[in-house]
Specification:
Layout (H helix, E strand, L loop, with lengths): L3 E2 L7 E2 L1 H8 L2 H21 L3 E11 L4 E12 L2 H6 L1 H12 L2
Antiparallel strand pairs: 1-2, 3-4
Length: 99
């Protein structure tokens, strides 16, 4: 496809193939998995359930391209973690620290 002018911009040229290559790269997959593992580890330290991180493929972008991502799930649920929204609270705390 190559470079193309983006409507509404004066000098920006986009290359959609480059964004697709970036989103499917192994470096992005490793970075998202690393973030998911940190989230799972922090949730594990705070909660009573067992949390794990795993690589996943997500759809994103205007063309719904498949890209690298990761997921955190509670593999051994505990009702207290669900009641206290442990995973959500840990994610919000990590987001606040990142600012």
């Amino acid at each position: 496809m190559g470079l193309h002018k983006v409507p509404g911009s004066k000098s920006y040229l986009a290359e959609d193939a480059g964004l697709k290559d970036l989103g499917t790269s192994s470096a992005v997959a490793a970075a998202t998995l690393s973030a998911a593992q940190r989230l799972a580890g922090n949730a594990q330290a705070v909660g009573r359930g067992t949390y794990e991180a795993a690589p996943a493929t997500v759809t994103a972008g205007w063309a719904n391209n498949r890209r690298a991502g990761a997921v955190v799930r509670e593999s051994r649920p505990d009702w207290r973690d669900t009641r206290d929204a442990i995973l959500q609270r840990v994610a919000e705390a990590m987001n606040a620290r990142g600012r």
